[in-house]
Structure formats: C-alpha cells, structure tokens
Amino acid sequence: MTSTQHQTYSASRSFARSHMRSDGRSADRPAFRIERELAVALDLEAISVHYQPQYDVATGRCCGVEALARWMLPTGENVAPSAFIPAAEQFGMIHALGRLILKKACETMSSWCSPGAEPLTLSVNVSTLQIDAAFSRLLEKTLKQFSFPARQLELEITESALIVNPERTIDYLNDWKKLGVRIAIDDFGTGYSSLNYLTRLPVDRLKIDRSLVQRLALDFKSVSIMRLILALATELGFDVIAEGVETKQELRILADLGCPKVQGYLLGRPMPARQAQIALTKTCRDVIKPTFGDPVAGRESHATRSPVNMAR
Ligand SMILES: [Ca+2]
C-alpha cells in the first residue's frame, strides 16, 4: 500500500467510524463514498456555517464569533468535523471547503453589521494546506465582494503551518497582514515548536488550546503555564483567548489570571446564524455573575490586578 493509499484508507476508516450508529452497526453510507458525497455537498454548498460566540471577560460582552463548518447529510445525520475536515484535506477538497466557509461567513457577518454597532471579530480557520497564493487572492476578493472590514476578520492557523515551510508561510502571512486582516495561532500550547517563531510571525492573538484550559482546575502546574503564556503575550503585544471553557471554575481561574477573552460551551455552543445573531446581542453576565459576585465590581478588581491589563 502506498503512502497516499494508506492515508486515503485511514481517512475512509475515520469517516466510517464517525458514521457508526450508537448501536455500533454501520450507517447506511459506505465509507468509500465520502469523496463523492463531500464533492456533491461542496458543489451544492450544502456545508453550513455555525458560529460560536467569544466573550470579553471584563465587559461580559460578545466580542466575536468563530465560524465552524457543519455538514448534515440528506438523511439528517451530522458528519463530525473531526471526520470530514481531515477527509477534505486528504481528498484535495480543503480549498473548496475553505472558500465556501470564508464566503458564507463574510456574507453573514456583513448582514449583521449595522451603523454604530460594536465591531465583532469573525474568526475563520485556515488549514495549513490552504496557505498559498490562491488563498491570498481569494481573501482580497472576498473582502471586496462583501465590503467586509479586514480588521474584523481573523484567520486562525496552527503551529504546524510553520513546520513544513516556515519561510513561505511567513511570506503569505505578511501578505494577509497587508490586506489588514488579523492572524491568530490556534491550539496554542500543543504544537511543541520553538517559541522563537513568535518573534517572526505577524501574530495578533494566541488561542489557548482547550487541553490546557481543561487542566486548570485539576493541576496547579497548568495554572503556572497559563500565567506564563499570558505574561509572554503581554510582553509581545498579543491578545489572548482561551477556548474550550466548560465550567465556571475554569472561567474563574482564567479571569483571576487576567485572560482577556474566552470561548467555550459554558458561554455558548456553536449555533446557526439566526440564533447566533440573537446571542451576540446578549452579555454573558448570567454566567459571570455567579462566578464573580457583582459583575461590575468583580471585573474592576479583576482588571486592576490582572498582569495583562497592567501592562496595557
Ligand atoms: Ca479554531
């Protein structure tokens, strides 16, 4: 079996596992049909976008959303993103998928913008395989097409983008920055790469991986690592958002450490556009209040002692 065949087989197996029904029997669609089904879904633009809200810890207000691809089969079955996104990469469809998500998300967010409204950041995930000249052209075209403010678009890339061809990646990221968009390092803290790369990248934000966030309440060493990341971000002038926040205890620790922004099931799950539009007009005070007591007093004292805020 060649390396490509092996990868294809693995992707098919992964898709098959994701299609297993709860009783353990195979779902109706054989795994080998994923390529064709995904191609059809992309052709019909049947992949939808859900939006997960992101919150400013100090104000409790929604400050942005992350656009996440969702695929529902005609049978009503949802295909897990952890199955179809790697499959799209394996079968050469990640460009089409990325194009569709960027287009739909910019179109939707443009329709939400109203004069005087607080600007929200739209975070869009970019696969390492998408980082090329064609994506830079697509970015420019899409921003123009929807008159989308570039400063409100944030592209999330992972550290793995730097492993294959760091020089080329840095050149493309600089091209994106020239267009005015923001860049975030996704899954930060899991890449095992040298921190030295942070000094060379035009990065605006670190997105702390959920695996670290979920250890905060269990392990004081994780709290120390989080504190160091926040101090490092302050030194380098980066914004920080913690993802995968699922409990009030995690939120309390992050707030006490001075983490400025949070995202996670505790505050809001990914949701369809119409629902998200309503959610983003609300604050997360209902969650923050029992966490901090009086939300106003709580955030003032928190902001005062925050190592992040002190440096800004
Ligand atoms: Ca992401």
Q: How would you sum up this structure, described in words?
A:
With 312 residues, the chain is of the alpha/beta class. The chain has a single domain (50-73, 91-310), classed as TIM Barrel (Alpha-Beta Barrel). 47% of the residues lie in helices and 17% in strands. The protein has 14 helices and nine strands. An eight-stranded mixed barrel has the order 1-2-4-5-6-7-8-9, surrounded by four helices. β2 (62-72) and β3 (78-79) form a beta hairpin. α1 (3-18) runs antiparallel to α3 and α4 (94-112) runs parallel beside α5. The termini are far apart. Calcium ion binds at residues 66, 125, 156, 186. Calcium ion (CA) binds at residues 66, 125, 156, 186.
What brief labels describe this structure?
TIM Barrel; eight-stranded mixed barrel; 47% helix; disordered C terminus; binds calcium ion; 312 residues; alpha/beta
Q: Please, what is the average pLDDT? A: 83
The whole-angstrom Rg is 20 Å
Q: Helical content, roughly?
A: 40-55%
Order of helices and strands: HHEEEHHEHEHHEEHHEHEHHHH
Q: Helical segment tally?
A: 14
Number of strands: 9
Category by helix and strand content: alpha/beta
Q: Within the CATH hierarchy, at the fold level, what is the topology? A: TIM Barrel
The oligomeric state is single chain
Overall structural domain count = 1
Q: Which architecture name does CATH use?
A: Alpha-Beta Barrel
CATH homologous superfamily placement: EAL domain
Distance between the termini: 56 Å
Arrangement of strands in the largest sheet: 1-2-4-5-6-7-8-9
Main beta-sheet annotation: 8 strands, mixed, barrel
- Highest-level CATH class: Alpha Beta
Ligands in the model, by name, code or SMILES, are:
calcium ion
